[in-house]
Amino acid sequence: MHKHTLFLKDEAALLEAARKLANAVKAHEDSVAESALTIYLLGELGAGKTTFSRGFIQQLGHQGHVKSPTYTLVESYDLAPWQINHFDLYRLADPEELEFMGIRDYLGTHRIILAEWPQRGEGYLPQPDIIITIDYADTARSITLEALTERGRELLDTM
Predict the structure, then answer these.
(1) What pLDDT does 1 receive?
(2) How would you write the chain as a 3-class SS string?
(3) In DSSP terms, which residues pair with 83 in a beta bridge?
(4) Residue 41 bridge partners (DSSP)
C-alpha cells in the first residue's frame, strides 16, 4: 500500500492538493487514457469532497462552476482528452440504481471517475486506483491519499 497524509489549514490548501493530483494525471496522460481512472472520495458531510473535486476538475481545464451532483448523482465534464464523471452517491437508495442509470456508459478509456460516497455504489463502481479520505482536524483538514494500483502509485509519487 502506498499512502500520503497531509494536514491542510484551509480550503485553499485543499484545492491546491486537488490541483497537484490533477497535474499528476496530466503528466501521466498516456497511462490514464488506457482505462478509467477511478478515485474514491471518503469523508463526512461537509468535509471537502466536492471542494476537492472542484479543484481537480478545474485544474484539468473546466472553466465554469463545478456543481455538486448530490441530486443528479453524476455531473460529466468533457475535458479533452478525458471525460470526467463526478458522482455523488449520498442519496443512492440501492447500488443497483447505478445499473438503471447506465453506469457502464461512464466507464472506459479516457474516463476519470470521481466518486463521493462510493460505498453506496459497492459492486457497481470499478475498483479505485486511489482512495482519498478527508477528515476534520480541528478547524483544518487531514487528507489521506492511498494508492491501490500501480497507476495510483505513479500518480501519488508525481504529486
Answers:
(1) 57
(2) CEEEEEEECCHHHHHHHHHHHHHHHHHCHHHHHCCCEEEEEECCCCCCHHHHHHHHHHHCCCCCCCCCCCCCCEEEEEECCEEEEEEECCCCCCCCHHHHCCHHHHCCCCEEEEEECHHHHCCCCCCCCEEEEEEEECCEEEEEEEECCHHHHHHHHHC
(3) 78, 111
(4) 116, 132
How many other C-beta atoms lie within 10 A of the C-beta of residue 109?
12
CA 18 – CA 59 distance, rounded (Å): 8
Using 70 as the pLDDT threshold, list the residues of the chain that sit under it: 1, 31-34
pLDDT tens string 124-158: 899 999 999 999 888 889 999 999 999 899 999 98
